[in-house]
Design a protein that fits this description.
The complex is a heterodimer of chains A (about 270) and B (about 290). Chain A is about 75% helix and about 0% strand. Chain A is mainly α and about 270 residues long. Chain A has one domain: MetI-like (MetI-like fold), CATH 1.10.3720. The longest helix of chain A has about 30 residues, at about 65-95. Chain A is globular. Chain A starts with 9 loop residues before the first helix and ends with a helix. With about 290 residues, chain B is mostly helical. Chain B has a single domain (about 50-285), classed as MetI-like (MetI-like fold, Orthogonal Bundle). Chain B has 13 helices and no strands. The radius of gyration of chain B is 24 Å and the shape is globular. The chains are: A mainly alpha (about 270), B mainly alpha (about 290). Chains A and B meet through helix 1, helix 3, helix 4, helix 5 and helix 6 of A and helix 1, helix 3, helix 4, helix 5 and helix 7 of B.
């Protein structure tokens, strides 16, 4: 995202700034409500006393620590499985001219369209048959063989010059050795981009985890947050905002630190 | 050997893909031809009865209609906003990185979290919207509890969430346009608006089409916000197809009918995929 383009006229600069402020305002409001006592939730007074009481309350009202652990476990498990499975499959599609390859690739791409959340009814039935309802493995399993990851790595592996592979072969590398020593290191930027998208997707994912979990021991942050924020639970705005901010904080901080990388990764994910 | 190695490498991923994508998709189609089994009445083959029930189900038509309005209400607006954002951020704006960050931030936040925040805006009386309204002496409304406004309220939030995501595609496209075009237009004395209308916008057309198809596919999968904001209500006024599938399967426990609804969703998605594919083909011909 280079410094191209012209200098914007003053009026447009003002409009762009106004829109930016408008776009940030829900988040800014959440911070306001979270860091002030309840009576200031709707009263905007610059002299309002700051307090972290809402965070303390949120932390005790809901088992946030447990949800955090679950989400981290879930995200780590999915990403590590995806990296292994997609690397192997991407390598097969990029460099092995096996029988039925193109048909198989077509079948893989089907998943780009039919994401697991569309098949909730049937996948729930499968999980209950496998005895994986209410397990973290059950949340992650449908996402582990990711068509998007396979596709992305196949494209990257295809750009690796054959000569490098041949040289490694001459040195006595096996075909898995070639993958590990030549292809994987060269695809590092792709892994980073894919990793960012996968982690943010699964950190934020809700529908499938909601369906497949029923206890605190397995529920990730999003599901915990939905139960916590439900109007029936009768928690006040400041506390809900505090809980919301806690749940998004790790991802938000990561985004603020690695903005450019995030945007580029999301774009790659979109274009496919 | 290459056949063996190729398939060996593919096998782990293939097992999971078949197990959780292809098999359930086929099973959905199969189950839609059977009745939902109960303890006293086991599931039996009913042919197309579920599909007949579907055409008679007013809620099905309502949620399908909602999906249509939802797509129509969110996609053009968020695309227009995305284009505007990209044009601004592409200019040499003071604190450009900050503005770009502001536009993109909603994209990285979970829908559940932002719905929690937006829920407060829409709350009657104490909510932000009503407070602003009160300032202008507009009477208070139950924004999410009124069938006339519930769907529109969810759409406003989704536009806010999606515009920044679409922006990055326009930004990439804008940065790949040759700068000579703009210089030439300047020499010719073309106004900014004329240049945008006659040069930039047509050149961005492939991006617009691409974003449009993706946004349409997405609009069928976006349901998380309903769990927080409206629960699909009031009277299914804001419900969407996937949310209805969830309700039928996991609240009403009518899995056969839920499978039938899923088949409709799969057919819709497949149709969109064909459209997307043809678009890609077309784009190749442009070159």
């Amino acid at each position: 995202m280079s410094a191209a383009g012209r200098r914007a006229p003053l009026l447009e600069t003002a409009a762009a700034w106004l829109l930016a402020l408008l776009w940030l305002s829900p988040l800014l409001y959440a911070f306001w409500a979270a860091f002030h006592p309840a009576e200031y939730a709707t009263r905007f007074d610059l002299l309002a006393p700051l307090s972290v009481g809402n965070f303390a309350k949120a932390w005790t009202y809901a088992p946030f620590a447990r949800h955090f652990v679950n989400t981290v476990m879930l995200v780590t498990m999915i990403l590590s499985a995806q990296l292994v499975l997609c690397t192997l499959a991407g390598y097969a599609f990029a460099r092995f001219d096996f029988a039925g390859r193109d048909i198989a690739f077509g079948f893989v791409l089907v998943q780009l369209l039919i994401m697991p959340e569309v098949l909730i009814v049937e996948n729930y039935r499968i999980m209950s048959r496998l005895g994986l309802v209410d397990t973290i493995l059950g949340i992650g399993l449908p996402y582990m063989a990711s068509a998007f990851g396979i596709f992305l790595l196949r494209q990257t592996f295809k750009t690796v010059p054959r000569e490098l592979e041949d040289a490694a072969r001459v040195e006595g590398c096996s075909f898995l050795g070639v993958l590990w020593r030549v292809y994987v290191p060269l695809a590092r930027p792709t892994y980073l981009a894919y990793g960012l998208v996968s982690v943010s997707y699964h950190w934020n994912n809700f529908l499938w985890p909601l369906i497949i979990t029923n206890t605190v021991e397995t529920r990730p942050l999003t599901v915990g947050l939905a139960i916590f924020g439900a109007p029936e639970s009768g928690v006040d705005w400041g506390v809900i905002s505090a809980g919301t901010i806690m749940a998004v904080a790790p991802l938000l901080v990561a985004f603020l630190l690695f903005q450019r990388q995030f945007m580029q990764s999301f774009m790659q994910a979109g274009i496919k | 050997m290459k056949h063996v190695y190729g398939w060996l490498l593919l096998t782990p991923a293939a097992i999971l893909l078949v197990g959780f994508t292809h098999y359930p998709a086929a099973a959905t189609l199969f189950d839609s031809l059977f009745s939902t089994g109960t303890v006293v009445r086991p599931s039996r083959f009913v042919g197309l009865d579920n599909y007949a029930a579907l055409t008679d189900d007013p809620i099905f038509w309502q949620v399908l209609g909602n999906n249509f309005w939802f797509a129509l209400g969110t996609i053009p607006t968020s695309i227009a906003l995305a284009l505007l954002m990209a044009l601004w951020v592409n200019d040499r704006l003071p604190a450009r990185a900050l503005v770009r960050m502001a536009y993109f931030t909603p994209t990285v936040l979970p829908m559940i979290a932002v719905a929690n925040i937006w829920l407060f805006f829409y709350t009657p009386q104490i909510g932000l919207l009503d407070q602003i309204g009160a300032f202008f002496t507009v009477p208070s409304r139950n924004w999410l509890g009124d069938p006339d406004t519930a769907l529109a309220c969810t759409m406003a939030m989704v536009i806010w969430k999606e515009a920044g995501f679409f922006m990055i595609f326009y930004l990439a496209a804008l940065q790949s346009l040759p700068p000579e075009l703009e210089e030439a237009a300047k020499l010719e004395g073309a106004s900014r608006w004329y240049f945008f209308r006659r040069v930039t916008f047509p050149l961005l057309m492939p991006t617009t089409l691409f974003v449009m198809v993706n946004a349409t596919i997405n609009s069928f999968k976006l349901v998380d916000h309903l769990f927080i904001l409206t629960k699909g209500g009031p009277d299914n006024a804001s419900s969407l197809l996937l949310y209805y599938i969830y309700q039928v399967a996991f609240s009403f426990f009518d899995t056969a009918y839920a499978s039938t609804l899923t088949v409709v969703l799969l057919v819709l998605l497949a149709g969109l995929a064909v459209a997307q594919f043809q678009l890609v083909e077309k784009r190749v011909h442009y070159r």
